[in-house]
Amino acid sequence: NSFKAESGSRSDVPKIVILITDGKSQDDVLSPAQRLRDAGIELFAIGVKYADKKELRAIASPPQKTHVYNVPDFRFMFDIMEKLTRSVCERISELN
């Protein structure tokens, strides 16, 4: 786990995960996502093409409007980059 001190994680640095998926998970993702959020890790979810939107909303940290993104194809990732970057940077500022 990259977010543990023994792996080099520092307590004074915000922890952020950006998940990118193009489908529905075959595993339970809700429990691990909740454990990450409970540990203070901020989760952003990006769905591509046939990603399960309900699953993305359940994985991501609130609020959904800044933490959940959908694009029709990987080629459209650049279309969300500015908004995603701004959301991540704003959240880092809030956490510091």
From TrEMBL:
Pfam families documented for this protein: VWA
Listed PROSITE patterns: VWFA
Domain VWFA: 1-84
InterPro entries: ECM_Assembly_Org, VWF_A, vWFA_dom_sf
Protein name: VWFA domain-containing protein
Organism: Cirrhinus mrigala
